[in-house]
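Re: export button greyed out
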Amino acid sequence: NAGVMQNPRHLVRRRGQEARLRCSPMKGHSHVYWYRQLPEEGLKFMVYLQKENIIDESGMPKERFSAEFPKEGPSILRIQQVVRGDSAAYFCASSPAGTRGEQYFGPGTRLTVT
Amino acid sequence: GNSVTQMEGPVTLSEEAFLTINCTYTATGYPSLFWYVQYPGEGLQLLLKATKADDKGSNKGFEATYRKETTSFHLEKGSVQVSDSAVYFCALSASGGSNYKLTFGKGTLLTVNP
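Workaround output, generated via the alternate export path:
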């Protein structure tokens, strides 16, 4: 059973470009979460999605950031017009329904903005 | 708001030494508590959990007890191995409607030398 997959593992973007981060949840999981880890910080919750629905985006910056989890295909975290402060590790996690706090994490995407 | 504070690393031990990583939390109500572990190049994995006061979570020789009176969930292992070298994250999920959201500590890097 494949785990949570994220790609790319490393992404370099220049300031002003767009970054697209992909996450394929574990088979059978319909809940996806995105977290961001800034240097020297713990992981911070960004957004929680179920298929075709955003359930909670309270941790996501209001501008430039968006997330989706379509009926078919991976979840996408999109960052428009990246700035140096967006440089971080972005982790995706998934879970089946009803498993409070028990989430399965991908290896992360390390975004570097130059 | 909710928060988790864990002992700063890095921690370096010799094989077969005793390990303690301290973790305290701030939360209203009755959170669930977790320890996650991240091995090099991999995603976070759930190591153990406890869902109510005085519960003890255990796995792979690691233990942690949910202490509500001291708001703590310290991780312990009696005899560490080189293969335990990893980053350890303490986390909580709050009680109530946002219980899917994990709040993490900053992580503690453990290195075990042969």
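Chain B has a mean pLDDT of 94. The button fix ships in the next patch.
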